[in-house]
Amino acid sequence: MTWPAHALAAAQAGHGASEPGAQHTATQRATGAAVELLEQLAEQHAEAARIAQELAQILATQVAGPAPVEAACDPVEQQPFLTVADLAERLNVAPGTVRRWRRQGALPPGIDLGGVVRWRPEVIEAWIAEREEAGR
User: Fold this and answer.
1) Using CB atoms within 10 A of its CB, is residue 97 exposed (0-12), middle (13-18) or buried (19+)?
2) 96, 101, 104, 106: CA torsion to nearest 10
3) pTM surpassing 0.70?
4) In this structure, what are the phi and psi dihedrals at residue 73, rounded to the nearest 5 degrees?
5) How many beta carbons lie within 10 A of that of residue 124, not counting itself?
6) Got the DSSP string for 66-120?
7) Cα–Cα distance between 108 and 82 in angstroms, integer?
């Protein structure tokens, strides 16, 4: 039991006080002590809030925040898909030849994007490398 509660209980039980005025005085002392403790607690709470505010300001100005996900995860640089014209230029053939080779299955499968065909550059480069190896 804390001191104010103990004093209040003693006052209510009549310990050490035989007169009603003495009980009232003991109750006032206990109440005053409780109020004093509450005031101290409020002051400590205000001080903790002030310290938290200062820490937040220090962190905001001195510590760099976490890097955004985009910056932290360096994405693999992807080349754009190759068009029929791009592939024809890369292979040094006419666009019609690329179309014919595709129909014949001579090229790696393309990606059909709603009626237009595209190829990943890395797939084409791997296909060219395989053809070079097969030619040796």
Assistant:
1) middle
2) 180
3) no
4) -100, 95
5) 18
6) PPPHHHHS----PPPPB-HHHHHHHHTS-HHHHHHHHHHT-SPP-EEETTEEEB-
7) 12
Determine contact, residues 84/98, Cβ cutoff 8 Å: yes
**Would you say how long the chain is, in residues?**
136
Over its length of 136 residues, how does the chain's per-residue pLDDT go in tens digits? 555 565 556 555 555 545 667 777 888 888 888 777 777 777 777 777 778 777 777 777 766 555 555 555 555 566 789 999 999 999 999 999 999 999 999 999 999 888 889 999 999 999 999 999 887 6
Alpha carbon distance 64, 66 (integer Å): 7
87 CB burial (10 A radius; 0-12, 13-18, 19+): buried
Are the C-beta atoms of 1 and 9 separated by less than 8 Å?
Answer: yes
Give the pair of three-digit tokens for residue 8.
Answer: 């209040």
Each domain of the chain, given as residue ranges in start order, spans 3-62, 84-134
Cα–Cα distance for residue pair 11/8, rounded to 1 Å:
5
The sign of the CA dihedral 34, 36, 41, 42 is positive
